[in-house]
Amino acid sequence: MSELTVTESTFSEPATVGTDSVPSAVQNIVTVRLPTVLRPQAGGQASVEVGGSTVRELLANLVAAHPGIGVNILDEGGELRKFVNIYVDDEDVRFLDKLDTQVDPGVEVAILPAVAGG
Amino acid sequence: MLRMARQAWLEMLAESWRTYPEEACGLVAGPTGANHVTRFFPVRNAAKSSRVFELDGMGFMKAERTADDAGLEVIGVMHSHTHTAAYPSPTDLAEAMKPLVPPSWHWVIVSLAWGFPEVRSFALEPSSDHFELGVSGIAEERLLLVN
Lengths: 118, 147
Description:
The complex is a heterodimer of chains A (118) and B (147).
Chain A: E1 29-33, E2 47-51, H1 55-65, H2 70-73, E3 84-88, E4 91-92, E5 108-113, E6 116-117
Parallel strand pairs in A: 1-5
Antiparallel strand pairs in A: 1-2, 3-4, 3-5
Chain B: E1 2-5, H1 6-19, E2 25-31, E3 36-37, E4 39-43, E5 53-54, H2 57-69, E6 72-81, H3 90-96, E7 106-111, E8 118-124, E9 138-141, E10 143-146
Parallel strand pairs in B: 1-3, 1-10, 6-7
Antiparallel strand pairs in B: 2-4, 2-6, 7-8, 8-9
């Protein structure tokens, strides 16, 4: 769109977009589906829009916006807890690059409990 | 008490026999806030075992999406026992207490150990936040079939 084409004479400083926690000026906004248990901590929403270019950045921004979610999905070292599954467009991130998995605009990320029993 | 549509009940039994001797598993869904199962979603047992089950993550996700689109909520998990009665094992109790598993979930167990199906449903007791393994924290609830 032509409105987005700006020159130095238009702005003296670069425009900033998004949250402070993501250094990159341009970031992906993707949909993150939340498990039922975490929805109350996100105002009851089944999914939220979050910025980030990797799963790790997405989770950092998700937790920054909804702090109650963090302890449930990440351990003390910031890694994914064993009972949590994260999917990027139907692919389990454990079989991709784990938390460093890249997310492209438009993908859907889902957080789900790993449910098992005997 | 958990109400269950006969069709969902029949599909649960069919899935249990289909996967026998491996354990079957799936999700049960119904209208939000009502303890009423109107749909059963079979989910692949990723453990492929006659002793344990593990809901396939992608199957879980697809079932949840379908339930969401139909205006339903996943309200519990079903699995079969192929060699023991339809009561939660110590593993089931531990799993039901995991942080991301909704404490309001119903745990429906189908046993095929006796040659004919035995179906029971269980729910966590409200005060069971800090229960220790082996101590009661999950109680059987009445399962009522409805049309």
